[in-house]
Design brief:
The complex is a heterotrimer of chains A (89), B (470) and C (432). Chain B is 41% helix and 17% strand. With 470 residues, chain B is α+β, with helices and mostly antiparallel strands. In chain C, β4, α1 and β5 form a beta-alpha-beta unit. Classes of the chains: A mainly alpha (89), B alpha+beta (470), C alpha/beta (432).
């Protein structure tokens, strides 16, 4: 069972806001879904990767970058070529 | 109280392009966000492709540092949210790093050789750069430049085996020199090496200090932190396990807020990148001469003292410079490079690469010919370095000496000057004749003054002795 | 010869998010053919939203590799089709641009997440369309709308420019009204791309030819198990009988790993999604965050406001399954389950050439009747095995149940697209 507090904790780690009003529903859905996932528990040992390909590389040769204009195209109110972001305190 | 230090060193690899895209890494002179593409900007739908050269460079380091390269290694995603991290995850390596083990030998606190074991070396991408503006509205948000985003790094992790800030500095100097000898790293590039340190006092919790961005910072940050921890222990306070940030400007470490370091990075294998199976590549790598071998050679071939050899081989450019200027005159070149030139460069904060090789060698040749006194030669050197700083073309030593009339006074002209000084200072001459020990020094000093330092004090002493004997 | 395509037809089923009303096209095998593109495939200069508010106004500065291929084949790219936000859904109702209706019955959902592409094709708005398939998102709407949809082998079609939901599963693929068009579009987009490190360099697809004679077709019991609508099961069984009539040899088989497939798929895809969707912070693109708030505050508020509930739920579940303490229990075991599914298929493909079953356990859902999330996830049970193993799978219309289309799913060995398309064509011709 996952508690409301755990769901709140996961939301904090995930940096996803959830309202108090949503918490109840999310928690019950969480438990239903995770309850289903628990079928995996009957598998004895886990694997950490299923990647099958190896050694795919590119050569160290410069390619054209985007123009600064294109790089800033989708950002809001860029400033002197920089992109704006909220400040990390 | 035994100090235990472990380091995590991030070094930029000297590739032409970024780790996962073709953007040039030569961005330092250019405007913000001019060396970016969909991949390093984290635009939706972009995919990373690994730079082969970055892997080769990392393997070169692994081989030079005696690491083992496992058959399979893997890139993983380290998830955290920060505005300079374009994809909200950093592609790094987690439980399958490129290289494990290895070591670096340094001069330990007791002067003997000390072996520092490495835990691992892994590859990862650098995030972008945040710029905080001053006050007012502009101080309330941050500006981001993604030019650095995706630059290849290796992270070298040591075992907690360093026992003082001095050892940590020696370790870093040796590491830096090795990386430069390998041609994989350029220490003159700003921010090319950054250090996190784990510090503890034996029997107490350890503290991680992040954000040390300069060599000089490492020793200072460690000293501050050790003093702080020892002080707490003396006061019977408990040291808590935490992450602290080094504040370069103030030379102090401050506690990071708990929310920020309580990280759950949720690592998992990067599904967009293939595994690395590169252990066999290591055999094909031929290592260049490394600092230890060069040190031995300098002692053997040039007859240098261990101290001079260590200083001169501790930096690739310095060692190359020395070999360019020392032909035929190593016994003069060694002290003049390792002691005098380096002192002058440190004072000016000037890199060795700026020193005009031919001009410096011409100065050494003048010293060799004894055409100037040591004092005048230093004057000539300073002038040469000032010319570099002013951007004027460097002059050869003989030109400067002639122009400034710094040639050593010798033979008849110096005898004339001595004669006249002796005539002017009869009292001192009398004192000397009476056997007063200080008198001769006074007379030599007066001659030096009269020649403005262009005479050899020993020579003057001899001439005075000869003249007064007559 | 190139020319211009004027896209005049109305869009009564809300199949498109963005329409390009007048487009130039060039010469080539697709010259002048109008093609719809799922809105999670990057198109330079054309808004690409993934049906999410968080990408509102985003205009990619580059084309996905498949778009470059389509343009040079002469296709007329007439717009971006509706979808479940970031591919997360089975109905195309989870879109910031409203639900798409199923042309076969407008009170029904077209399936998802490539529902806009399927509806655009089924209604005749375009001749063919590109969709993407992470856990069935091409085959499900193909089945529900009564058209053909192919999920290629993982690595056959470049993902460069495909906006990631779950990188290790998804492929871009074609939707069309018949097998011939489906194969034509597939032949243009298949191929190696150095910009996608998971793409493989293989010979081009062979010309399409009907072929079923002597093929061994495996029918796993699990594909007709609990949860599969009996009427749907009957339609598909008789379709498989027709394959036998056409000369195929049908054999019964079992796939024990099926019991883990859905959980393995959701654990992995949600984990990857939680990671992939972190980048939508409004800084480099998308609606701006509140710049004067502290970073984490602004970021989590933005994500709450602009991601739908379903997307947030999957981010939370993905974060949970990867978080410290749970990774070994969920993510690592899901990878093991995945390799079990792969070995089950490998074992079966030693005995048979093609594996057949229903594409979906039911017919198209009624619009607005979506039930709880887990029940919706369960609908993917028959499509996710192919994604877990990376094998190709095609859905072809094989009849109706209660008047609504039913799809027959044919799965093949890695890179055996030609073989399953040949069988699909034989079925289509034989049943026509």
């Amino acid at each position: 069972m996952v508690s409301k507090e755990e769901v709140e904790h996961i939301a904090a780690i995930a940096d996803i806001g959830i309202d108090d009003s949503e918490l109840e529903l999310f928690t019950s859905q969480f438990n239903e879904i995770i309850g289903y996932f628990d079928i995996l528990d009957s598998i004895e040992e886990g694997l950490d990767s299923t990647q099958t390909r190896h050694n795919v590389f590119r050569e160290d040769v410069p390619l054209p970058s985007l123009s600064q204009e294109d790089a800033l195209l989708n950002s809001t109110d860029p400033e002197d070529g920089f992109i704006r972001a909220p400040r990390v305190i | 109280m035994t100090v235990i230090i472990g380091l995590e060193i991030h070094c930029q690899l000297n590739t032409q392009t970024k780790l996962f895209c073709g953007c040039s890494t030569d961005y330092r002179e250019d405007g913000p966000n001019t060396h970016v593409c969909p991949v390093c900007l984290g635009l939706p739908g972009s995919l990373p492709i690994t730079n082969r050269q970055a892997v080769i460079y990392a393997l070169r380091v692994a081989k030079a540092l005696h690491c083992e390269v496992p058959e399979v290694s893997e890139f993983a995603r380290k998830n955290y949210f920060y505005p300079d991290l374009a994809k909200a995850y950093q592609i790094t390596q987690y439980d399958k790093p490129l290289a494990v083990g290895g070591y670096i030998d340094i001069e330990g606190e007791d002067g003997g050789e000390k072996r520092i074991q490495l835990t691992r070396i892994h590859m990862e991408e650098d995030p972008g750069r945040l710029l905080h503006m001053g006050s007012g509205d502009r101080g309330r948000y941050t500006l981001v430049d993604y030019n650095r985003s995706g630059v290849p790094l290796i992270e070298i992790v040591t075992e907690p085996e360093l026992s003082s800030p001095k050892e940590a500095r020696r370790f870093l100097n040796k590491l830096r020199a090795t990386l430069e000898y390998l041609g994989t790293f350029d220490s003159e590039k700003e921010g090319s090496l950054r250090v996190d340190a784990n510090i503890s006092i034996k029997g107490h919790e350890r503290v991680e200090v992040k954000n040390i961005t300069s060599y000089k910072g490492v020793e200072k940050a460690l000293m501050f932190e050790i003093t702080r921890q020892k002080g707490m222990i003396r006061r019977n306070a408990t040291i808590v396990r935490e992450t602290r940030h080094y504040q370069e400007a103030r030379g102090v470490t401050t506690s990071a807020r708990s929310k920020e370091f309580e990280h759950d990075y949720r690592y998992f294998p990067e599904p967009d990148l293939a595994l690395l199976r590169v252990s066999s590549w290591v055999d094909e790598i031929t290592l260049p001469e490394l600092p230890d071998a060069r040190l031995d050679r300098f002692m053997k071939d040039y007859g240098l003292s261990k101290n001079h050899a260590r200083t001169l081989t501790g930096d690739l450019r310095l060692a190359d410079f020395f070999e360019e200027v020392c032909t035929g005159i190593p016994e003069i070149a060694a002290p003049w490079t390792a002691d005098i030139l380096l002192g002058e460069l440190n004072y000016r904060d000037m890199p060795i690469s700026k020193v005009p090789v031919q001009a410096f060698r011409s100065l050494l040749m003048e010293v060799k010919k004894a055409s100037v006194t040591d004092k005048s030669a230093v004057e000539v050197l300073r002038l040469m370095l000032n010319q570099v700083m002013d951007g004027t073309p460097p002059e050869m030593a003989d030109e400067i000496i002639a122009r400034l009339g710094l040639a050593k006074e010798e033979g008849d002209s110096i005898v004339e000057i001595v004669t006249s000084v002796l005539a002017e200072h009869e009292a001192a001459v009398a004192d000397h004749r009476a056997g007063k020990p200080g008198a001769i020094n006074f007379l030599v000093g007066q001659v030096m003054k009269a020649t403005r330092g262009r005479a050899d004090p020993k020579e003057i002493g001899r001439i005075i002795g000869d003249l007064l004997k007559e | 010869m190139g020319g211009r395509f004027v896209f005049e037809k109305p869009d009564p089923h809300n199949a498109f998010i963005t329409r390009c009303m007048d487009v130039a096209y060039g010469d080539g095998p697709l010259s002048g053919i109008p093609i719809g593109i799922k809105d999670n495939i990057s198109t330079a200069g054309i808004p690409t939203t993934c049906a999410s508010k968080i990408l509102e106004g985003y205009i990619p500065p580059y084309d996905a590799h498949v778009i470059t291929l389509l343009r040079s084949a002469g296709a007329a790219i007439v717009g971006k089709t509706n979808m479940d936000e970031f591919g997360m859904g089975t109905t195309t109702e989870n879109s910031a641009y409203g639900p798409t209706q199923n042309p076969a019955d407008p009170t029904r959902a077209p399936g998802g997440s490539s529902g806009g592409s399927a509806a655009a094709v089924a209604s005749g708005l375009v001749r063919m369309a590109l969709g993407t398939d992470t856990g069935g998102s091409i085959r499900c709407p193909a089945s529900f709308c009564g058209i053909v949809g192919l999920k290629p082998t993982y690595g056959r079609v470049s993902r460069h420019g495909l906006i990631a939901y779950a990188n290790s599963f998804e492929q871009i693929g074609p939707l069309a009204r018949n097998v011939g068009d489906c194969a034509l579009l597939y032949s243009v987009i298949a191929g190696y791309d150095p910009k996608d490190g998971t793409s493989l360099d293989l010979p081009p697809p062979a010309p399409l030819q009907a072929e079923i004679q002597g093929k061994r077709i495996g029918v796993p019991a699990e594909f007709f198990g609990e949860g599969v609508n009996p009427e749907v099961a009957d339609v598909v069984r008789s379709a498989i009988d027709r394959l036998a009539d056409l000369g195929a040899e049908v054999v019964s088989c079992t796939m024990p790993s099926m019991r883990y497939a859905l959980a393995a798929y959701y654990v992995t895809s949600m984990g990857e999604a939680a990671s992939n969707l972190g980048r939508y912070d409004g800084v480099r693109y998308g609606p701006a965050p509140e710049f004067f708030r502290p970073w984490h505050d602004a970021y989590s508020r933005l994500r709450k406001e602009y991601f739908s509930e379903e997307v947030r739920r999957r981010i939370l579940l993905g974060t949970f399954s990867l978080s410290a303490g749970y990774q070994g229990k969920y993510y690592a075991k899901a990878q093991k389950a995945r390799s079990m599914v792969r070995s089950d298929f490998n074992r079966l493909f030693e005995e048979v050439d093609i594996i057949a079953g229903p594409t979906m356990p039911s017919v198209a859902f009624r619009l607005g009747k979506s039930c709880d999330p887990l029940s919706m996830y369960l609908a993917d049970i028959l499509t996710v095995p192919a994604n877990l193993a990376g094998i190709p799978a095609v859905s072809v219309p094989c009849g109706t149940a209660g008047g609504l289309p039913v799809g027959l799913q044919l799965m093949g060995r890695h890179f055996a697209e030609d073989e399953i398309l040949a069988a699909a064509l034989a079925f289509e011709e034989g049943s026509a």
